[in-house]
Amino acid sequence: MKSVSVSDRAADQIRPVEIECGYLESNPASVLYKSGKTIVLCTASVETNVPPWMEGRGKGWVTAEYNMLPGSTSPRKRRDRSGKVDGRTTEIQRLIGRSLRAIVDLNALGERSITVDCDVLQADGGTRTASITGGYIALALAVSQLAQTPDLDPPVDPTKVLRDSVAAISVGVIGEEVVLDLDYRLDSAADVDMNVIMTGGGRFIEIQGTGEEATFDDTQLAELLRLGKIGIAELTRLQQAQLNN
């Protein structure tokens, strides 16, 4: 496959990523995650209870909430009010929650809940994938801090709670080319777009692929997944570099 220019990067390169852990003084398990011009603030908060339907089962819960701030896009995005959440927001936060729970041993967490909040400060494509990738870092920070809490009963072992890492990336077909990590300009031009969510160990969690008034064949699907794996591997490396600091 011939090389294409994707703005200032090759078709198999991800956008520049910046990660700032402990971004909020009020919550050490906070991460400012930047993927190109997309910026997401991810925070993880721990509660010493679980939803009523899980009480007494001896296992915990991990969930997520997602929100795009009014100024994150142009024109302005209206705030969700009075508990009303639009369908896109609901779908994305369920995706984030599923992706994070896939790598968590809820029994090892004990009867505790962790909520990962992903607030989009600026959107330029890939907000859901950035939320998953940054959200995992916030989750890992929260679990590590929980394990260091004195006299915790029952105690928490981070190596047992987090069985793997998780990251997500977008890929797409534009014309005849397969491109990794779509910003808004590329996403709006894509004939096919796909979100790939994988563990750091290389196992798939979820694949969302759609033809936009177009179709794709086996060869293109294989290339989409190949580039997705390349992007996930790089994101996993960046995640671990931050968590090992």
Automatic annotation (TrEMBL):
Domain Exoribonuclease phosphorolytic: 13-142, 165-229
Catalytic activity annotation: tRNA(n+1) + phosphate = tRNA(n) + a ribonucleoside 5'-diphosphate
InterPro entries: ExoRNase_PH_dom1, ExoRNase_PH_dom2, ExoRNase_PH_dom2_sf, PNPase/RNase_PH_dom_sf, Ribosomal_Su5_D2-typ_SF, RNase_PH, RNase_PH_bac-type, RNase_PH_CS
Subunit (UniProt): Homohexameric ring arranged as a trimer of dimers.
Family in the record: Belongs to the RNase PH family.
Function, as annotated: Phosphorolytic 3'-5' exoribonuclease that plays an important role in tRNA 3'-end maturation. Removes nucleotide residues following the 3'-CCA terminus of tRNAs; can also add nucleotides to the ends of RNA molecules by using nucleoside diphosphates as substrates, but this may not be physiologically important. Probably plays a role in initiation of 16S rRNA degradation (leading to ribosome degradation) during starvation.
PANTHER family with a match to the protein in the record: EXOSOME COMPLEX COMPONENT (PTHR11953), EXOSOME COMPLEX COMPONENT RRP41 (PTHR11953:SF0)
Listed name of the protein: Ribonuclease PH
Gene: rph
